[in-house]
Structures are given as structure tokens and as C-alpha cells.
Amino acid sequence: QVQLVESGGGLVQSGGSLRLSCAASGITLDYYAIGWFRQAPGKEREGVSCITSDGSTTYADSVKGRFTISRDNAKHTVYLQMNSLNPADTAVYYCAAAYSAFYCSGTPSDYWGQGTQVTVSS
To answer: How confident is the model over 112-122, as pLDDT tens digits?
Structure first.
């Protein structure tokens, strides 16, 4: 059974940092691309960042220079380091995985986590 479990969310003041983790089980993470998405109340889900199986990364314009995605295949975990957080970053953050070389270009996800809440206070 495949599971993606996010952790690391919480409440932080504007300008602060958080590191989200996405722990994968039931798949060989090495072969999967992983994406981070977020959904704020009343808004559509949006892509935040993505990392391919070979380590190439992409970022939404709104987080470039502030967020960094990385992966540790030995720990079966992908991270999202979020710095200089602001209230617009408040959302539920989800990780997702896909066995696709084109996932970070927009192909569908195969698996989703349950999400972790990030709240940034002003």
C-alpha cells in the first residue's frame, strides 16, 4: 500500500520558516517525481514545487527564491524548505508522487498525501 505522509506544518509568524517533509512508503522513491501543492480556503489547488527522479526542480513564481525542494531517497523523504513566509502562503500543503518523467511538466499524480496545514500570521 502506497502512503505519502506530510509533516512539519504549523503556525509561524510572517518572515519565519518551516520545513515540510513528505515521507513515502510502498514505492521506491528513487523512481518517482514528487510535487508539492497547496490549497488555501476558497481557492483552487496550485502547484508549488516539483522535483524529478534525477533531481531537477521547478517552482511557482510566487515561491521562487523563498522555497527549496530537495529529496533524500535513502530516507524515502522529500522536503520543502520554506523561508520568508508571508500570510499569502497560508494553506494546506500536499505532496504527490508520479511515476512519470513528465510529471513536473504537468502530467497527473499517481498518489497523494493527506496534507499538512501551514498558517502564517501577520
So the answer is: 999 999 999 99
* Residues recorded for the chain: 122
Calpha distance 16→40 (Å, rounded)? 19
Q: Say if CB 121 and CB 48 are below 8 A apart.
A: no
Which pLDDT tens digit goes with each residue over 41-95? Answer: 999 999 999 999 999 999 999 999 999 999 999 999 999 999 999 999 999 999 9
Is residue 32 within 8 Å of 99, Cβ to Cβ?
yes
CA 81 to chain centre: 9
User: Cell 480556503 maps to which residue?
Assistant: 41
